[in-house]
Design a protein that fits this description.
The chain is an alpha+beta fold and 210 residues long. The protein is 24% helix and 27% strand. The chain has a six-stranded antiparallel beta sheet. A two-stranded antiparallel sheet has the order 2-3. A two-stranded antiparallel sheet has the order 5-6.
Length: 210
């Protein structure tokens, strides 16, 4: 379903307020596993949502930052790290979603949580600063927006996320996806032909049968 909607709505599902779905819970076990992302950031200022949808809050000079500085800083965010979840998130605080409080202008303390980053590197080296591309693989509960904001501060500037694409979810990768105009019987059968292999990997990963 690529091409008809944004990558966020199809592959990533990136939203502050998750939409309820009656069949979401029974299939959650089927999408466990590591996640992969491709993200783009802009150095120079932060926003209240940590992405381009929000309002600029804090500005910082970025001209001193080099590609080499970025490579060196990325090492701080690899492995098991502590991360403070953003206010604009679906986490609960005293019975309310954090994004509901944030929309009212309320900020509350959030405890840092341990998250894991398996790989993190610059993507598209030709991208000129202050733009920055990243590719990463991580575990659950990780916020790419927060990573970018923290990276900006580690570089002595500020930053926010401008684009995000999920490239992997467990055994499923973006390269396996079909665009809407490619939904033809023969193509679907060809792609579904790998379903037994995917289900085998899911069973091995979760300990559950189909």
């Amino acid at each position: 379903m690529r091409g008809q909607w944004s990558h966020d709505s199809v592959m990533h599902g990136y939203d502050y307020a998750p939409l309820p779905h009656p069949r979401r819970a029974p299939v959650r076990w089927a999408i466990k596993g590591g996640k992969g992302y491709r993200a783009e950031a802009l150095l120079g200022h932060e926003t209240n949502t940590q992405d381009a949808l929000g309002e600029a809050t804090v500005h910082g000079e970025w001209e001193h930052v080099t590609k080499e500085d970025i490579d060196a800083a990325l090492g701080q965010f690899t492995g098991d790290i502590m991360q403070v979840p953003p206010m604009f998130s679906a986490l609960h605080k005293d019975g309310q979603r954090l994004y509901e409080l944030a929309r009212k202008g309320i900020t509350v303390e959030r405890e840092a949580r341990q998250v894991r980053v398996d790989s993190l590197r610059q993507a598209d080296p030709a991208l000129p600063l202050p733009l920055l591309g990243l590719e990463l693989e991580c575990g659950g509960g990780f916020y790419v927006r927060t990573l970018i904001e923290d990276l900006g501060r580690a570089l002595g500037t500020r930053a926010h996320m401008t684009a995000l694409e999920r490239t992997k979810q467990g055994p499923f990768e973006l390269r396996h996806a079909l665009r809407l105009e490619e939904w033809e019987y023969d193509r679907l059968c060809k792609h579904l032909g790998d379903a037994p292999g995917i289900l085998d990997r899911l069973e091995a990963m979760t300990g559950r049968g189909a």
